[in-house]
């Protein structure tokens, strides 16, 4: 054997040793036959399938999560035919029946005529990275939920109420259904805080929230804290009469709770004043108008002596 041949053999052995000592799993597929020309032995440590069991592209496809299979195969085949290097993340099936997140980085090899000759690439285990990504996404969702949640009572805050109103207004414009909005204010709440202290005031707000939340609201109805001692109810597909029934039931439940309020000028327990506004968004207007209308009606309820409901 010539020195050049010996050197080539040594180089090949060195490259193979280097490739097989990394965590990345090297592989090569012959494009004409779609059969594996090579796959690193690390594949057995990662997925449990023997090196010799990776015969053709069907083995790769069948050992992929069903939810990932279609788009990954279509994407990789299209990119390969176009001669474009690419990468794809998917879940690979282990011999034990579990799944491991894989990132396949693919290089398209062309011959002298520019035709696709082979695909070579590396498989990387990205399970830990995916776990971290999912954890971050979960934290982001939790933070987003918190950003829409009133910190004291746990119900929707003003930001979420505004968002819900925008969505429900647009929905009502399309459907032609009415949309109602109730503004509710605890009567003489400043005096309650002065008499019992702010901690007791916080407890009172939480109790009122629980009472309102128990008023058998429908899935799309949204209860929120508008600010301070003011609460609001967004009632989609609800006309004036139905909204009044919700308001009356809520007010009755709060009265029945008999939360002591010796400093109130209305009663010796917590009472509420309410403004009930109903709109037909398909006829025009905007959500801000509905909120303003409910606020005006609430003001009238307070002017008229509190512990009552005023509707438009």
UniProtKB/TrEMBL annotation:
<dbReference type="InterPro" id="IPR050469">
    <property type="entry name" value="Diguanylate_Cyclase"/>
</dbReference>
<dbReference type="Pfam" id="PF00990">
    <property type="entry name" value="GGDEF"/>
</dbReference>
<dbReference type="InterPro" id="IPR000700">
    <property type="entry name" value="PAS-assoc_C"/>
</dbReference>
<dbReference type="GO" id="GO:0052621">
    <property type="term" value="F:diguanylate cyclase activity"/>
</dbReference>
<dbReference type="Pfam" id="PF08447">
    <property type="entry name" value="PAS_3"/>
</dbReference>
<feature type="domain" description="PAS">
    <location>
        <begin position="11"/>
        <end position="70"/>
    </location>
</feature>
<dbReference type="InterPro" id="IPR035965">
    <property type="entry name" value="PAS-like_dom_sf"/>
</dbReference>
<dbReference type="InterPro" id="IPR000014">
    <property type="entry name" value="PAS"/>
</dbReference>
<dbReference type="InterPro" id="IPR013655">
    <property type="entry name" value="PAS_fold_3"/>
</dbReference>
<dbReference type="GO" id="GO:0005886">
    <property type="term" value="C:plasma membrane"/>
</dbReference>
<feature type="domain" description="GGDEF">
    <location>
        <begin position="177"/>
        <end position="312"/>
    </location>
</feature>
<feature type="domain" description="PAC">
    <location>
        <begin position="86"/>
        <end position="138"/>
    </location>
</feature>
<dbReference type="InterPro" id="IPR000160">
    <property type="entry name" value="GGDEF_dom"/>
</dbReference>
<dbReference type="GO" id="GO:1902201">
    <property type="term" value="P:negative regulation of bacterial-type flagellum-dependent cell motility"/>
</dbReference>
<protein>
    <recommendedName>
        <fullName>diguanylate cyclase</fullName>
        <ecNumber>2.7.7.65</ecNumber>
    </recommendedName>
</protein>
<dbReference type="InterPro" id="IPR001610">
    <property type="entry name" value="PAC"/>
</dbReference>
<dbReference type="InterPro" id="IPR043128">
    <property type="entry name" value="Rev_trsase/Diguanyl_cyclase"/>
</dbReference>
<dbReference type="GO" id="GO:0043709">
    <property type="term" value="P:cell adhesion involved in single-species biofilm formation"/>
</dbReference>
<dbReference type="InterPro" id="IPR029787">
    <property type="entry name" value="Nucleotide_cyclase"/>
</dbReference>
